[in-house]
Amino acid sequence: MDEGKWSNHYQTCDINAVWVKVMTSDGKHFFFSDYKVWQEVKSHCEKNFVFIEDLHLQFRSHKCIMDVRNAEGLYLVRSVMGTMGGPSSNYYTVGVLKGKEVHKQMWLVPELIMEKEMVDDPSQCFEEAMIFNEKKKTNRKKQVQA
After folding, report:
1. Strands of 88-98's sheet, edge to edge?
2. What is the per-residue pLDDT across 96-145, written as a single tens digit (0 to 9) for each?
């Protein structure tokens, strides 16, 4: 992640937002607080046959670096959890696809406290929120054909 690019971007933006910082394998950076940009990241990855090398969540100076090494896919959604008669909590749920499992972490926002971890089947994920590592998919096909 190019922290110089981030610093330049951050100086012009809302410091009270929770930011998602992404760097793809072709060196392109995406800095966003509007979740809709995740679809632009997905489109960029699919069109250019690249994948995400770095994924960070950041609130003010608190930065959380996601471990995306060896990921076959990445998943990012906004989530809400509530209880009857109680307050609701907002989250970013980040998932890493490894084999046939998506390892998810729920990050409370804006504090960015990891509150819950779970493992799900990919069928339990929103398809539009998953970005696949096409190179790993191609390698898997080659391994099966061999």
Report:
1. 113-120, 101-108, 88-98, 73-82, 130-132
2. 999 999 999 999 999 999 999 999 999 999 999 999 998 876 554 443 34
Query: Dihedral sign, CA of 79, 75, 39, 7?
Result: positive
Within 8 A by CB and 6+ apart from 82, the residues are 88, 89
Are 30 and 2 in contact by the 8 Å Cβ rule? The answer is no
**Which sign, positive or negative, has the C-alpha torsion 132, 133, 138, 141?**
negative
Domain boundaries, the chain: 3-145
Quick: pLDDT tens for 44-77: 999 999 999 999 999 999 999 999 989 999 999 9
- Do 90 and 109 meet the contact criterion of CB atoms below 8 Å apart? yes
Q: What is the DSSP letter of 26?
A: T
Are 135 and 82 in contact by the 8 Å Cβ rule? The answer is: no
Strand 88-98 versus strand 101-108 pairing type: antiparallel
Q: What angle do CA 63, 69, 75 make, to 5 degrees?
A: 70
Whether pTM > 0.90 for this model: the answer is no
